[in-house]
């Protein structure tokens, strides 16, 4: 199996994104040179006529995402104390932003769940994994 050195994990707090993160951790334990970037993407799409209300919602979503990634970062630094681990909150279309981040930061593998959160969000985030598969310039490992 090819040894990757720069891995991007798409994380949204779902069970499958946790499995994706665990896969990256397992890879990192076998390869001390592996660097892991964990990203989550915000895409508030509701039709909101008030810019103030929209900004407030976006700020709250951003805060929740930062808090979520702080927990992930702490766990990764505990399990992988000598490895480079970064987290980032992206904003915009999740599929596009994940691929853009991977390209801009020269990631050589993207790991993500096949679907994200439940209900309508599950369908939407399933479309994110599909979009990443279609647009990515590096290999994509989809976790089921």
Question: How would the blueprint of this fold be written?
Answer:
Layout: E1 6-10, H1 15-30, E2 35-42, H2 51-79, E3 85-91, H3 94-104, E4 109-113, H4 119-135, E5 140-143
Parallel strand pairs: 1-2, 1-4, 2-3, 4-5
Give helix % range.
Answer: 40-55%
Mean pLDDT: 88
Instruction: Give the termini distance in whole angstroms.
Output: 20 Å
Order of helices and strands: EHEHEHEHE
Task: Indicate the low-confidence ranges by residue numbers.
Answer: 118-125
Number of strands: 5
Quick one: overall form? Answer: globular
**Structural class computed from helices and strand pairing:** alpha/beta
Major sheet, described briefly? 5 strands, parallel
Strand content: 15-25%
Enumerate the strands of the largest sheet in spatial order, edge to edge or round the barrel.
3-2-1-4-5
Q: How many helical elements?
A: 4
Alpha-carbon Rg, integer: 15 Å
Quick structural summary:
The protein is of the alpha/beta class and 144 residues long.
Description:
The protein starts with 5 loop residues before the first strand and ends with a strand. It is 51% helix and 20% strand. It has 4 helices and 5 strands. Helix 1 (15-30) links the parallel strand 1 (6-10) and strand 2. Helix 3 packs parallel to helix 4. With 144 residues, it is an alpha/beta fold. Strands 3-2-1-4-5 form a 5-stranded parallel beta sheet, with helices on both faces. Mean pLDDT is 88; it is low at 118-125.
């Amino acid at each position: 199996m090819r040894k990757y050195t720069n891995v991007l994990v798409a994380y949204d707090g779902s069970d499958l994104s946790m499995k994706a993160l665990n896969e990256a951790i397992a890879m990192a334990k076998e390869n001390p040179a592996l660097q892991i970037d964990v990203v989550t993407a915000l895409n508030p799409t509701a039709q909101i006529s008030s810019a103030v209300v929209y900004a407030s919602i976006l700020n709250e979503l951003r805060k929740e995402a930062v808090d979520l990634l702080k927990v992930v970062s702490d766990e990764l630094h505990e399990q992988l104390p000598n490895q480079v681990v970064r987290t980032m909150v992206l904003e915009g279309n999740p599929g596009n932003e994940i691929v853009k981040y991977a390209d801009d930061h020269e990631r050589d593998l993207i790991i993500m769940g096949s679907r994200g959160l439940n209900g309508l969000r599950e369908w939407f985030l399933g479309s994110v994994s599909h979009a990443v598969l279609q647009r990515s310039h590096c290999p994509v490992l989809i976790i089921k």
